[in-house]
UniProtKB/TrEMBL annotation:
Keywords: Membrane, Transmembrane, Transmembrane helix. Residues 289-349 are annotated as: Disordered. Coiled coil: none annotated. The chain crosses the membrane at residues 29-46, 58-79, 138-156. This is Fatty acid hydroxylase domain-containing protein. GO terms for cellular component: membrane. Residues 307-325 have a biased composition (Basic residues). Residues 289-298 have a biased composition (Basic and acidic residues). Pfam families: FA_hydroxylase. GO terms for molecular function: iron ion binding; oxidoreductase activity. It is found in: Membrane. It comes from the Eukaryota.
Length: 349
């Protein structure tokens, strides 16, 4: 049997590149596992959970957001030509400090709540185990998280617009720019940023590494959505274009992230325009049907014309004048006659 297998492998040799890649991948995985095991054994779960969350936020949101903002500030003409609305670039010198401060406060609030939950809850928020999660489990959690977070974000975002517009007004105070993704009201940040990101890993009790991947993906999506750049390729272009459409239409459409729920619920501009066109067509057809259905040969009803009331004309009432006013009027009339006579004599002479 061994002779047959050896002869078969000699005839059909395995590609050396496949073997080398597999070996390299195995070595990388082994190195990562040893590093993770050392980290878990040498640090507490609280420290690992909090600092890893902070590092992901700094690397996946703050670093690209600050790079894009710096590019907009240093090269405003070039950045403005790439934006949907160049006004977002011209406003940045005066609004960037406020956006930076609000985003930093909100992210600090998010990391603080994460640390408080890890410290106070009797069960681990996200398990920090020595074992690594399986790849199918990681992929399933990521896929499920994207679906659930998109649904939660859509319905909460739409509800906030219609029920608490004052709460969400701060988020629409500036054209889309990356820092605006987290520069919002703290309550709005908790509802629209933290809750959609955390809800699926919490319910699934996902591994801390799975949660970090989900958080990193969400941070990158936030930066791309609020970049404001036109001409981005693929899904990135759709994210940026939908966010720009949401702000351009004053929050009347594009409430979701990926646009699927907007299409299903009719809150995309194409659906809204089609609905308006259908409503107009129905109203026009209804008016036409009413016009065509009228019997124009039917005589008009004999409605008597109203007659005007004839009455005696009342004489004007005399004006009540006191004796003093009467004497003054008589004196003025006599003076007027004398003045007129004197003028005639002067003209005659």
């Amino acid at each position: 049997m061994s002779t047959i297998l050896s002869s078969l492998f000699s005839v059909l040799p395995l590609p050396t590149s496949l073997i080398s890649n597999y070996t390299l991948t195995s070595l990388n995985f082994l190195f990562f596992y040893l590093t993770w095991l050392t980290l878990v054994l040498s640090h507490s779960p609280l420290k690992i959970s909090v600092f890893s969350t902070l590092i992901i936020r700094l690397g996946c949101f703050w670093l690209p957001a600050l790079l894009v903002t710096s590019f907009d500030l240093l090269l405003p003409d070039l950045a403005g030509s790439c934006k949907f609305h160049p006004s977002s670039v011209s406003m940045l010198p005066s609004t960037a400090p406020g956006l930076l401060l609000r985003a930093a406060i909100n992210d600090a609030l998010g990391v603080g709540l994460h640390a408080l939950a890890v410290y106070a809850l009797p069960f681990p928020l996200f398990p920090v185990n020595k074992t690594l999660p399986l790849l199918p489990t990681v992929l399933y959690d990521i896929f499920l998280s994207q679906i659930v977070s998109a649904g939660v974000y859509y319905y909460l975002h739409r509800s906030v617009h219609y029920l608490w517009p004052a709460l969400h007004a701060q988020h629409h105070s500036h054209p889309p720019t990356p820092l605006l993704a987290h520069a919002q009201n703290p309550a709005d940040y908790l509802l629209l940023s933290l809750l959609p990101t955390y809800i699926t890993p919490l319910l699934r009790r996902s591994h801390i590494l799975t949660f970090l991947i989900i958080l990193a993906l969400q941070c990158v999506v936030d930066v791309v959505r609020f970049s404001g750049y036109q001409g981005l390729w693929g899904a990135a272009g759709g994210l940026s274009r939908r966010t720009e459409g949401h702000y351009y239409n004053r929050g009347t459409c594009y409430f979701g992230i990926w646009g699927i729920l907007d299409y299903m619920h009719g809150t995309s501009p194409a659906n809204l325009e089609a609905d308006a066109q259908r409503t107009f067509s129905r109203a026009k057809q209804r008016a036409k049907d009413e016009w065509d259905g009228m019997d124009w040969d039917k005589p008009l009803p004999n409605v008597p014309m109203p007659k005007a009331k004839r009455g005696k004309l009342s004489k004007p009432r005399p004006r009540a004048v006191s004796k003093k006013q009467h004497k003054e009027e008589e004196g003025e009339s006599v003076l007027g006659v004398m003045t007129r006579n004197m003028r005639r004599r002067a003209v005659g002479s």
